[in-house]
Design a protein that fits this description.
This protein is mostly helical. The protein has a single domain, classed as Rossmann fold (3-Layer(aba) Sandwich). Helix content is 47%, strand content 7%. The protein is built from 4 helices and 2 strands, in the order αβαααβ. A two-stranded parallel sheet has the order 1-2. The longest helix has 21 residues. It is globular. The mean pLDDT is 94.
Length: 109
């Protein structure tokens, strides 16, 4: 996160998850357990809409978020789920202690 006003607890919780994942990846490697985290960008979920007081404000919020994403849209829940399935699969067997950004490039570009 970028340290946005009124999002201190949210940002701290994200930092805590990142720290837990790296620590647990190290602690659990001997047991063959891999630990990774997903870092979603704006995904079309009720949580996003719930930030707005009414449907008009929700539409405006979704449009504003989509404009910030380099791919020009919000993500779909199925896209975040596909990333989680990848990390849970054998296709990611050599990945541990990392963060997979599912954000349309928002934090990379």
């Amino acid at each position: 996160t970028t340290g946005g006003e009124a999002f201190g607890v949210y940002a701290a919780s994200k930092a805590a998850v990142r720290s837990f994942a790296r620590t647990w990846a190290n602690e659990l490697r001997g047991r063959g357990i891999r630990v990774n985290t997903l870092v979603p960008g704006p995904i079309k979920t009720p949580g996003i809409t719930g930030l707005a007081p009414d449907e008009e404000a929700a539409r405006s919020l979704r449009a504003s978020l989509a404009q910030q994403v380099p791919l020009g849209r919000m993500g779909e829940p199925a896209e975040a789920a596909a990333a989680a399935l990848f990390l849970a699969s054998d296709q990611s067997s050599f990945i541990t202690g990392t963060e997979l950004y599912v954000d349309g490039g928002l934090n990379q570009i």
